[in-house]
Amino acid sequence: MPLTVNLRHLDEHNALLSGELPVGELDLDMGDEMIQVTRPLRYDLEIQKLDEGLLVRGSLRLTLECRCVRCLEPFTRPLELKEWTCLLPFAGEDQVAVVNDCVDLTPFVREDMLLEFPRHPLCKPECGGLKTRTGKVRKSADGIAPSAWADLDKLEL
């Protein structure tokens, strides 16, 4: 069930919405094997009706199941938008769609959460990458772990 709000309920007072949005409703099929969403999005929102639109404020929380792009180890990464705010206008080029006096907030939540996804998930910033069979990080002859750019730096163009 999408995250919707009925505009008639906002005539008298602001609406408070708390709950979970199932993964299927988020429609986050990114085709990225390094980042998976397996748990629902949790939200705590306050919706206020203004003359020109809706003001939505609150927090959004999502846990990502990731695989490190350097060492390929699995890890979880929490995403949280603590002070999320969204203004949805009733008129103009960016007007929000109103169907049966209801507004679907799901696309706006999805878009802002996607913008928070890591481009290249790392288990930790200092991750050394793939380990050898002995369990140690590969190092060059001088004892320093090779960077991703080491071979490219050797090219003479």
Summarize this structure briefly.
The chain is mainly beta and 157 residues long.
* CA(first)-CA(last) distance: 56 Å
Count of runs of 4 or more consecutive helical residues = 3
Rough outline:
elongated
What is the ordering of alpha helices and beta strands? EEHEEEEEEHH
Structural class: mainly beta
Computed over alpha carbons, the radius of gyration is 22 Å
Assembly of the depicted chains = single chain
Q: How many strands?
A: 8
Portion in beta strands: 35-45%
Low-confidence stretches: none
Mean pLDDT: 87
Helix content: 10-25%
**Largest sheet, described in full?**
5 strands, antiparallel
Number of domains: 1
